[in-house]
Amino acid sequence: MSDKPDKESQTEEPTEKRLSDSVERGDTPNSREVTTFAGLFAAVLFFYFFLRSGARPMVAAMQNMLDQSGQYQIGAGRNALHLIDATMRAVGQFLLPAIVLIIVMALVATFGQNAPQIAPERLMPKLERIAPDWSRVISMRGVTELFKSLAKLLIVGLVAFFVIKGEIGAAIATIQSDPAGLAEHILDVSTRLLSGITLAVFVLAAFDFAWTRIHWKRDLRMSRQDVKDEMKQMQGDPMVKARQRSVALERARKRMMAAVPTATMVIANPTHYAIALRYVREEGGAPKVVAKGQDLIALKIREIAEQNDIPVIEDKALARSMYDRVEVDMMIPAEFYRVIAELIHFLNRTGASGQQQQGRSS
Q1: Residue 118: pLDDT above 60?
Q2: Which one is predicted more confidently, 85 or 180?
Q3: Domain at 253-359, CATH class
Q4: Where in the chain is the domain with CATH 3.40.1690.10?
Q5: Which pTM does this prediction carry?
Q6: Is the separation of the CB atoms in 253 and 291 below 8 Å?
């Protein structure tokens, strides 16, 4: 059975996690036409802003060397090195702007499409890259790439045809009237030709940029089961989470029960609710709830309290009210200060213990 995903079942749009996982693997949408446009645009900038100004110093340097050629002895090593150095300096100064422009535009084209990302998986050699599956080579993507290449050739050919066609007559006239200006005319035609090609490639690059991203997201589409599995992976298996919650509650319950022997009193209702309060003057602050519970837990709290000789005071209204208002490890709110103070005063005065329960009317 094939392990390839069933495209017909992949009807759901990719989730943010699937998209981010793809980016982390280095599988990002990257349009080659955008890079091509960037290189051509760099060339256009060079032609318009640097070619003429940069060519003049180089031509002047060459002219100077030719004018002084009689002073050089080519056989002498120092003279040869001087000629090479002067030539390289002139050519380097001429080409430096072009090199800088190409590098800058290449970086803009690359990082403008996708943020820099180090993907170790892309660096590992894979057999399918060496021996690709021909079913993948002869695929819709391959056909699309072929059509894009043909479109580029057609666009470049048409632009070149219309630009050159309109300049043939002007070139012939320039040769007849001003042969020295032919080079300048050719440079102008070349600049217009390059500009036209760059503009056409820009349109193609914009289309390819959008198509590449659409196709990338289409390849990452998910089936409904994939979405469910991802949600389960992110949120956790409900059964496992329920088990974890159960374990956490059991641990919290054990800690709470372990704190009951430290309580000063337990307020009960009489079997449905139980709240264990701790108050020690030296500790400061208001009385604090160290344990509370309903039904079986309430009975367990009372049992532990009686085993540790802690007074249990039955007051239905107070027990119910405090149960709803105060959580474990919280100090009681101000509204309970007076009644709890009276109970503490009563316990201190009578010395009531777990065997001496105080009943209060509800």
Answers
A1: no
A2: 85
A3: alpha beta
A4: 253-359
A5: 0.50
A6: no
